Amino acid sequence: MRRPGHGGGTVLAENDPKIKDFPPHYLVRVDPSRADPGGLSDLLGKLNPGRERADALAVSSKAGLGLLTIAATEAVAGLAIGVNWLAAPDSIAAGSANEALIGPEGFGNDPATAYNRNSYTWSYLNSGSVQDIGAAPAWTLLDSVDRTRNTVEIGVVDQGFRPDINDDLPAGTTMTSVVPGVPATHRGTGSPWHGTEVADTAAGVPDNGRGVAGSAGPVGRLNLVWSSYDFFTAISGVTAAAGAGSKIINMSFSASVHWALEWSVLPFEAATAVLRGAGILLFASAGNDGRDVDGETCFLVCWENHWVTPCENAGVTCVGGLLQNSLLRDPQSNYGHEDVDIFAPFTVITGPTPDQTRPRQVWGTSFASPYAAGVAALIWAADPNQGGSAVETKLLGWMRTSPDDRVKRRVINALDPVRDALPPALDIRTPSAGAQLGAGTPVQFRANVYDDGLGSPTVTWKRGSVSLGTGNPRTASLPAGTHTITATAAFPGGATASDSIQVTVTNHAPTVHIVTPSDDSGPPVFTPAEPISFAGTSLDPDTGGLADNQVSWRLDGSVFAAGHTAQTPLNVPPGPHTVTFRGCDTFGLCGTDTVAITIRAAGPNLPPTVAITNPANGAVLWTNGSDAGGVFHQLTLGSSAVDPEGGPLSLAWTDSQAGAPAVPIGAGPSPIVQLRGGCGDIPHRITLTATDDAGNVRQQTVEVVVKLIC
């Protein structure tokens, strides 16, 4: 850039964002005393042909006249030059309703409604209120099909950022300053923490138990850029936000430049136009003067008397403000039939700042603008493949109508454009991605489906290329291994949507246990033709107990019975033998337990045969009584015991509770006993011992659980 001829000049800063079609910008300091303001009128006439005679232009100082003269001289000479106009933030002093848990009143559907912590009830976020914007329901819709993972980066060019004080901003928030020597956390001018409140409005994180909720809360990621509100640092700020990856940029500040000086805004407008041409959406506040930004000055023809920038810049969506809980324009909001594009809530709640420790109510188009930017982010998150123009078309195309002639059909709508942007979608909800499952365990497969108005779909499930069937939900079992589960929704008319997850299925070996006969006191002794009672239990960690056809009994390796219980003679030669109880799951993984027994030749007096008929082996007995000692299950024990010689038998019952030593609990064929319980499952090992008059002894044991839910 060549230096201005009349004022000399020193280059103070350079901004070269390395963006296509975006030339470098320089901040130049000039000496206004070297200029002759007497020629300013002629210069302005050349820059504004056809509008030479109109209203008066006043400047605040002689230095200001000199600066304008130098700038106008260079502009007439063909240099793309701008004046570094200083803008002001559009916030309005708020009240003092700063209660953290109670909050400011008036944000329910009824203006008199007390504050509710649930942001879904807030009138500027919910559906069903007068404004009926539906931002919060749009969060739910996006979450239902896992679109809240589609992060959208929002740049906020402003002042006064303190995420360390307001810890409600999204993870990954970045901060930078384009003003040398000024940190991004430096307080702002006028409204010191304006940027923090603007960021809160756009992307305060909902449902985290603190702060507030911004319109893009579930999807927004913020790039905060500290700018001085002057045009050079504003240009630097928006380019820095773009360079940080922002798809959307918000500017909650404005300056009103007289029509005669509109040429001085052209560099800023060129910057916004280039960024918009690059696919970035830009939002700016309309201002809080309650006036028409399209107001005109006329002499033969008419033209706007002020350029409100950046609101009226090319490529910028200008946002006015709605009165709280109303479709009417807030009286303090600027308006304009041509350049104010959309109206969003003028009054919102923002979170803590260094000066305000609790959430509070704030007013201004400064907050209407980031609210609209946040809604655009919701639309973008619904379909990340769409471009900025498609997002803008949906945002503006779904606006609702106000009875206010200065608003008309420009009321912001969130839920409908999000629905419009969201394609037919399916999201697998159960099992979760990466789930660890048990082999053979019945698993419920369920997906959330958004039909986009296409009708009810047929949902088909697959494990790799293997069909698991149709339905939503669908229950199926999986073999061991790592599997890709795919659900596909086929809609009437042929459209489809699908989602895939990976799960890991582990097959755990079943465990089996021989209850009887027991060799705890040494190998039991039986005769070859004696009916022997066999009982066992099984557990498959993945599916529960094994079925009877999955377990078997073996003598020295050869199967002789199936099922968890059996009573049969072994008819094998005398000597030591090994009995094995074996259980296998449906995938062939097996568990075993063994017991040593001895077979001896039958003597003249055969041992008794004995069986417990009540309770059954493996029974679950719920507590049915209590006393001073606690809860218990009371029952009548049942048995079948026979002496082959027909002699008398002595019957004794013992119980080993939870692994403790066995204790006597009764005698005879059917005593009434109390099995002690407690919270959860209390195991009992009940043994019946039968002794005949020759001293022959036989036992039968069952294992049961006494259960209580506490």
TrEMBL record:
<dbReference type="InterPro" id="IPR036852">
    <property type="entry name" value="Peptidase_S8/S53_dom_sf"/>
</dbReference>
<comment type="similarity">
    <text>Belongs to the peptidase S8 family.</text>
</comment>
<dbReference type="InterPro" id="IPR000209">
    <property type="entry name" value="Peptidase_S8/S53_dom"/>
</dbReference>
<feature type="domain" description="Peptidase S8/S53">
    <location>
        <begin position="151"/>
        <end position="392"/>
    </location>
</feature>
<feature type="active site" description="Charge relay system">
    <location>
        <position position="158"/>
    </location>
</feature>
<dbReference type="InterPro" id="IPR050131">
    <property type="entry name" value="Peptidase_S8_subtilisin-like"/>
</dbReference>
<dbReference type="InterPro" id="IPR013783">
    <property type="entry name" value="Ig-like_fold"/>
</dbReference>
<dbReference type="GO" id="GO:0005615">
    <property type="term" value="C:extracellular space"/>
</dbReference>
<dbReference type="GO" id="GO:0004252">
    <property type="term" value="F:serine-type endopeptidase activity"/>
</dbReference>
<dbReference type="InterPro" id="IPR015500">
    <property type="entry name" value="Peptidase_S8_subtilisin-rel"/>
</dbReference>
<dbReference type="Pfam" id="PF00082">
    <property type="entry name" value="Peptidase_S8"/>
</dbReference>
<dbReference type="GO" id="GO:0005975">
    <property type="term" value="P:carbohydrate metabolic process"/>
</dbReference>
<feature type="active site" description="Charge relay system">
    <location>
        <position position="366"/>
    </location>
</feature>
<keyword id="KW-0378">Hydrolase</keyword>
<protein>
    <recommendedName>
        <fullName>Peptidase S8/S53 domain-containing protein</fullName>
    </recommendedName>
</protein>
<dbReference type="InterPro" id="IPR023828">
    <property type="entry name" value="Peptidase_S8_Ser-AS"/>
</dbReference>
<keyword id="KW-0645">Protease</keyword>
<feature type="active site" description="Charge relay system">
    <location>
        <position position="194"/>
    </location>
</feature>
<dbReference type="GO" id="GO:0006508">
    <property type="term" value="P:proteolysis"/>
</dbReference>
<keyword id="KW-0720">Serine protease</keyword>
